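SECTION: protein entry
WANTED: fold as tokens:
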Amino acid sequence: MLGALVISLGAIALGAPVGTRYFLTTINWSLLMSLFTIVPAVSVFGSSWKDWQRIFAHTNCRPIGSLDFMICLPAHGAIIGAWLGAWPMPLDWERPWQEWPICVSYGAMAGYLVALVVSFSLILVWARFEHVKRD
């Protein structure tokens, strides 16, 4: 729940509409983003600050192992997908799907699914090269 609160405050800081009309939709969207980004990491790493920094900050080291890629890539994919999904909102088409947070939610889901497929593919390729015998 704390992650959803941080995500909703970040969304408001980046331009999400504020008001009683949008309060529930912003909370629902932040819960969706929390489900894609924070919940998998909490389930696997718990409160290990070292693991969280390794997975999300990319400062000192990169994700290592298949589990790290399964957490890292879909989380980043959801964030990038939500960001890319926001581009049609300010266009003046007056379509119902341009309302907050419909296109951002679809973008997050699409980004999450694409990154999930990419992470699975990278894991398969990585495992294939890891098990090759060398002379």
